[in-house]
Amino acid sequence: MSVYELVGDDAELSAPALVVSFTDWVDAGGAGSRAARHIGADGELYARFDGDALFDYRSHRPILDIVDGTPKEFDWPEMTIRRRRYGTRDLLVLTGPEPDFRWREFAAGALDVALRAGVVEHVSLGAIPAAVPHTLPTPVMMTASTKELLQESDRIPEGLLRVPAAAVSLVEWTLSQSGIPAVGYWAQVPHYLPQYPPAAIALIRRVESHLGIAIGVGELEQETAAQRTQLDEMFSTRGDAKEFLEQLEQLAGQQEIPGADEIAAEVEKFLRGFTGESGPNPLSP
Fold first, then answer.
1. How many CB atoms are closer than 10 A to CB 69?
2. Contacts of 193 (CB under 8 A, 6+ apart)
């Protein structure tokens, strides 16, 4: 039995690209998944993956609506591909929680959909926690299946980088091994913020530039402005937080592209957050 089913129009697509991002791992601040959902918003449902095969419902629990004491509806976690056209190009946007099971079969299913649709390139979106301030533009690092896809101005992690792998990276790897050019954009998100719309905007802008299309950022711009106002107020009334922010700004001014050891250290800090061992947060009381 296939791990997915095609449900959308099987008409020929125009220079389609597959854009992929999952919640959970490698999605600091919700930036990657938010950008992908924004890109695919209002798109036609093109393919649906079997949630029973991919998810452990104890870690990705469905939501039950109870109205006046009566259970009414279950909202199940979904892994879907939506089709959205921008200008003369079609985008297939694969989003959902990161799968718990059958990663290889899932990646093979994504490849099968891509080949059937005639996908010509792949884009991964994600975000990592980093010692960067919210007062400066969001840094975005890039990975690519071949060096020819990189430009001189692109930020790339230097040296060997060994981190716990993500399902989004496996999908990218699987497609690239089949000859589909693949790039990944990874926003660096202030480690003290659980949600960060500016990073989603930065990722969308990179997709626009790479694919040569106009997407727009819509409500993300208003959310960014509202968050910035709130943060400015919070940091202005907390001397210790303001001092911490100034230190981050100084470090950002001195740093170039972060090295592999630095990135790995930030990932380890992020992992400790899942086990309740995270370090001090400047916004904590």
1. 5
2. 29, 134
Strand partners, 89: 86
CA 199 to chain centroid, in Å, comes to 10
As a whole number of angstroms, the distance between CA 67 and CA 62 comes to 16
Residue type, 19: V
Q: Which residue has the tokens 């129009």?
A: 9
**Scanning the structure block, which residue is given the tokens 């790039």?**
183
Q: Do residues 188 and 140 touch, judged by C-beta distance below 8 A?
A: yes
The model carries a pTM of: 0.88
Q: What averages of pLDDT result for each successive group of 10 residues across the chain (285 residues)?
A: 86 94 96 98 97 97 97 97 96 98 98 97 96 94 94 84 91 97 97 96 98 97 97 88 88 60 53 46 64
Residue type, 150: L
CA dist., res. 126 & res. 21, Å (int) = 6
The two structure tokens encoding residue 4: 């997915």
DSSP state of 111: H
Query: Is there a contact between 199 and 186 (Cβ–Cβ < 8 Å)?
Result: no
Q: At what angle do helices 239-254 and 219-236 cross, to 10 degrees?
A: 120
Name the residue among 173, 172, 147, 142 with its Cα closest to residue 258: 142
Q: Which tokens belong to 154? A: 């692109």
HSE toward the beta carbon, residue 191, CA cutoff 13 A: 21
